[in-house]
Write a structure and sequence with these properties.
Elements lengths: L2 E18 L2 E14 L5 E6 L10 H9 L4 E2 L12 H18 L16 E4 L2 E8 L6 H10 L4 E5 L5 H14 L5 E5 L6 H17 L3 E5 L7 H10 L3 E4 L6 H9 L5 E4 L1 H4 L2 H10 L3 E4 L6 H14 L6 E4 L7
Helix pairs in contact: 3-4
Bound molecules: magnesium ion.
The site of magnesium ion (MG) has 6 residues, from loops.
């Protein structure tokens, strides 16, 4: 059966450009896919590319979307190439959503207003969100406000300023954490070996008193995988792979090479959600699901995977709505 297909562009500016070691990011651009059946049921999916992570660019996704006929044969979905992982995610999600609507399947809306809810309850389990703090000194008032609002897991980017500057900021941030509060440090692959070891030693020492630094995310770039693997076996503080596991092939490869630390899964860019779920079923990993600043449409689809396959003891990397204007 053919469906009616359409797509729309969106562009959401960040309140403040997001500073990462890849530079400044000022707006989130993406594409919404819409499939409609003859009864008028609609299913949507989202293409939210993150090309510096290795996904397709918005231009490549646009090119793919624009060459498709408005009469859409769902078999096309299985033929979307692996170099268009965001398109795989969006089209497959749109079809699944359409089928759910058509079959009157119950849909749990997981897309709460994340800026005012620090956790969701599903199957009686509270899922916390990790709150992404602004870079630099602006993080200090921010963490105090959010601790007062019951958040207990925070994330801060590192690898932007000197180790000494960042360490003193992190120490101050840690002093505001509530009991059982946790801080994640994300380097986006921007550290060298020496600084990575300094951070791991710092975390080791701090965590001896109270385990406050939950993990260090991608301290070294993906090409340094064997060093990361050795460090993960050498230090008690968890290391999370993020940039290293941007798509399903890389995820499988890191697992096969022996990674048993944390895996950050940015499901919206990883590729086919069906193949991801199939693989996770036979490979129980310490999975932490994370946002790529997608809209509510993509977020709902990612959260469905997260509550099923994520480690329930790790906060979801979705406390990011405050980065956008309402
Ligand atoms: Mg990261």
């Amino acid at each position: 059966m053919d469906y009616c297909y359409d797509y729309f562009f969106y562009c959401k500016p960040f309140v403040i450009p997001l500073q990462t070691c890849h530079g400044l990011w000022s707006e989130r651009r993406g594409i919404i896919i819409q499939l409609r059946d003859q009864q008028g049921n609609i299913g949507k999916g989202e293409i939210a590319p993150l090309s510096w992570f290795g996904s397709e660019t918005i231009e490549q996704a646009t090119q793919f979307c624009s060459q498709l006929d408005t009469k859409f044969n769902p078999q096309i979905i299985d033929q979307i190439p692996n170099n268009l992982p965001c398109c795989q995610f969006a089209f497959e999600s749109a079809l699944v959503n359409l089928e759910k609507v058509a079959n009157n399947s119950p849909i749990t809306n997981l897309d709460f207003n994340l800026s005012s809810n620090y956790q969701i309850y599903l199957v009686n389990h509270p899922w916390n969100y990790s709150y992404l703090l602004p870079t630099g000194l602006a993080a200090l008032p921010s963490i105090q406000t959010k601790v007062a609002q019951q958040y207990n897991t925070f994330k801060q980017k590192i690898g932007v300023q000197s180790f000494e500057q960042e360490r003193s900021l992190i120490k101050e941030l840690m002093s505001y954490l509530p009991t059982q509060g946790k801080l994640r440090l994300d380097a986006n692959g921007g550290l060298n070996l020496e600084t990575t070891k300094r951070w791991l030693e710092f975390a080791e020492l701090e965590n001896e008193l109270e385990p406050k630094i939950e993990l260090i995310e991608q301290p070294l770039p993906p090409e340094d995988f064997s060093t990361l693997l050795a460090l993960s076996q050498q230090f008690k503080t968890a290391i999370a792979l993020d940039e290293s596991v941007a798509n399903l092939t890389q995820l499988q490869s890191c697992y096969q090479q022996g990674w048993r630390g944390v895996f950050v899964l940015k499901a919206a860019i990883i590729g086919s959600p069906r193949r991801l779920a199939q693989w996770l079923q036979t490979h129980p990993i310490d999975a932490l699901f994370s946002s790529v600043f997608e809209t509510a449409i993509g977020r709902q689809n990612v959260l469905e995977l997260a509550v099923k396959w994520g480690n329930p003891n790790r906060a979801l990397g979705f406390g990011v709505n405050h980065w956008f204007q309402e």
